[in-house]
Amino acid sequence: MASSGINDAGPDRPASCIAAKAPRLQRKPMSAYFIISYDIVDFDMFQNYPPRVWDLLQEHGGELLVSDTEALQIEGERNMMHAIIRFPSQEQALACFNSDAYQNEIKQFRHGSTTNSQVVLARGFDPLTD
Q1: Where are the alpha helices (DSSP H) in the chain?
Q2: Where is each DUF1330 domain found (predicted)?
């Protein structure tokens, strides 16, 4: 199949390259997503975490998109808990994570009750603005 143009993705041109070639209509903050997974080892202690983090997410514009303890393992190692949280911008996501409330009052419940924790912050993709 012949290439249809400069914006075609392929093995030598990832989707991020396509975004660089897309016309820039208007610049808006890009959504950011916390992608989180961990194994819960102390359920009694963990019960303190969800209500506290929920309130903080609301204060910072966070939206819980996924909270799943029964995710289907497709590849690699599966943790017990998986969550995805969307924020309007990377700045708002980091403000939430770095807030005094999270760092000094809330995070301890997750750290003290889980193992194998992974937290990743990824930017959303919009070929028209990115």
Answers
A1: 15-21, 43-46, 49-59, 90-98, 100-101, 107-113
A2: 31-120
Nearest to 68 by CA among 53, 82, 84, 79: 82
Q: 63: helix, coil or strand?
A: strand
Q: What tokens does 31 get?
A: 């959504």
Judge: domain 30-123, CATH 3.30.70.100: yes
Nearest-angstrom CA–CA distance, 28 and 46: 36
Sequence-distant (≥ 6) Cβ neighbours of residue 11 within 8 angstroms: none
Specify the pLDDT at position 30. Answer: 86
pLDDT at 6: 44
Q: Is 30 left (phi over 0), alpha (psi -120 to 50) or beta?
A: beta
Q: Is residue 21 pLDDT above 60, yes or no?
A: no
pTM of the model: 0.75
Query: Contact 53/123 with Cβ under 8 angstroms?
Result: no
Per-residue pLDDT, 24: 52
The Cα 90–Cα 110 span in angstroms is 22
